[in-house]
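User: structure tokens for this one?
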Amino acid sequence: MNIANKVTVLRIVLIPVFLVFLLTDIGIIGQYTAIALFILAALTDLLDGYLARSKNLVTDFGKIMDAVADKLLVCAALIALVELSMIPSWVVIVIISRDFLLTAFRTLAASKNIIIAADKIGKIKTTFQIIMIVYLMFMFNAPFLVLAGNVLIGLVLLLTIASAVNYIFKNRTVLQLENI
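Assistant:
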């Protein structure tokens, strides 16, 4: 296993550790440790991508597991934030449903030898998801920040829906009846 793939695996290993600190009532130190671990895990996505591209370490394992690690990290954080009443469950359902929908769409495309790469709006969506999650975790100690948190949640919802529509529209030939 090359170094880029090890960094991807590290992101997955950090998830339960992050969740323990986030969901265990051990005070402000636990909250800030959870935030730091989430940020560290999110940054490993940049690091593994950089290592894979710059050192020519791109592998099939990395292509698949990098995306899985990203989804696991974001989904775990969002579900935990529902548990902590920091985000409505319906918002998380929309976000996770988009991911399942596009995974199915990409699988269908791949069965027709069509590769759908990540695009700019999807990367922007992921960036704002991470910003929103970190912001919501900081809100534990500052309830007066709720309005800005709600604005971020709304923005992430818009980006989530827009990115799904964009992926499907740009690749609509996958859905032509003769391709199904």
